[in-house]
Every structure is written in structure tokens, then in C-alpha cells.
Amino acid sequence: MRKPIIGIAAEKAIEKPGVFQYPWYFTIESYVRAVTLVGGTPILLLPGSPADELINIVDGLLMQGGMDVTPSEYGEAKLPECGRTDLKEDSFHESLIKAAIKQEKPILGICRGIQIINVTLGGTLYQDLESKWHRHYENYEDPCHIINIKEGTKLHSIFGDTLLVNSLHHQGIKELAKGLIPSAYSEDGLIEAVENDLIMAIQCHPEALKEKDEKYLRLFEYFIEKCKN
Q: Name one GO molecular function term (predicted).
């Protein structure tokens, strides 16, 4: 049986590399490894081709972490606390999400992924969370707080009542988009995961925790199984 092909939406580099000073597109090795470990074949989806054509060649879409979402995409002016944004990248990612939904391809969102999914479907974001609870940038591979998972959700069937997660974000879901079900909350009430029949998205970075505990791969295993069907 052919392995599911997983399209990872490319992120644009924050800084220009090396001698040539050209921008470049990338994904992080931990996403590639997580997809590969659970039986998928990852490929990078780059701007330049129509989103419908890109989604047509994959079995599922992975929206990875990255920069902040442009506030104008959810009807707000950009605050000074908002980080680096790229409207062209937002538009590309939104087109991939819409195409995946249209073609009924499963979507897995991680960190920025959950945020751009929510915005694409009509939700809004906190541009800069007042709480420092969620900003543990130096501890990328260390879990730092618990999320409480809603009983009866798909996420609950994967992890149970609670999950210890890492946290590398200063933005989060404010108004939840219609059609998304909140499946987990942090102790300060922030939505930490959402889902529906096609979408599974989480605010933490499970791909960075898999080396310390294989249970975090369960999310990717669930995603790959959805892509097989």
C-alpha cells in the first residue's frame, strides 16, 4: 500500500541566508521526522502553483508553526506587540486550507497552524497574550503546563483527560470560528486545541516532544490514519 503523502505548508525564512542573501522556504526537521515515523511521506508545498493543484497531489495537509498571522486578516489593526507577519504567506496558507476542506483532505495544525486555520474559517486571535504563561521559548523540548481535554472529543480519545505540553506562543484564539469544536483549554482558559471531521489542530508543538515521550506521536498517528481513509 502506498504511504500517505503529507503536504507541509512551507514557511518563509525570517532572515536572509548566507552569502547570496536570498529569502528561502523551509520546514523544520522535527515535522518531517514525525510524519515519517508514523508512516507518511512528507513533501513541502511551495507558493507559485494553484492551491487546488497542490492539495490534489497530497493525502493530507500539515500547517506548521511560524510567524504571526497578519491582523488585517481578522479585521484588526496591527498592534506594536504583534510580531513579524507576511500577508502573502497568510494568503497562500489560507488558500491551502480552503482547498483541503473543499477536497475533503484531513488537516493537522500546529501552533501557528491552529491560528491560521481559525482565521481562515472566520475566527480572531489575541495579538499578544497578557499572560506570560504561554511563552517558554527557551524550553522548546520541555513540557511546561497542562491542558485539560474535553471529554467526547477526538483529542480525548487520543490523550485522555489531560496532556502536559510545551508552549512557544504569544498569540492564541480569541473568537472561535464557526465549525470548529474546542477540544482543550489551558488552566487560564485559552483554547489550546480544536477539531472537526477534517481538522485536528493544537497550540503546542508535539513534534518537539516525541523524542522524550513517544505518546506525542499519537497525534500524528491519528492524522496519518485519517489520510489513509
A: hydrolase activity, acting on carbon-nitrogen (but not peptide) bonds, in linear amides
Q: What would the mean pLDDT of 41-57 be, rounded to a whole number?
A: 98
Mean pLDDT of 79-103: 96
Spot the catalytic one: 93, 156, 170, 205: 205
Q: Do the beta carbons of residue 20 and residue 76 sit within 8 Å?
A: no
CA-to-CA separations, 222 to 40, 92, 110, 158, 192, in angstroms, rounded? 11, 26, 14, 8, 18
pLDDT score at 186: 92
C-alpha span between 197 and 229 (Å, rounded):
12
If pLDDT is split at 50, 70 and 90, which confidence band does 59 have? very high
Pairwise CA distance, residues 199 & 60, whole Å: 10
CATH number at 5-228: 3.40.50.880
Q: In the chain, count of helices (H) and strands (E)?
A: 6, 13
- The catalytic position among 82, 94, 111, 227 is 111
Q: Of 89, 68, 94, 65, nearest to 80 (Cα)?
A: 68
**Is residue 204 annotated as a catalytic residue, yes or no?**
no
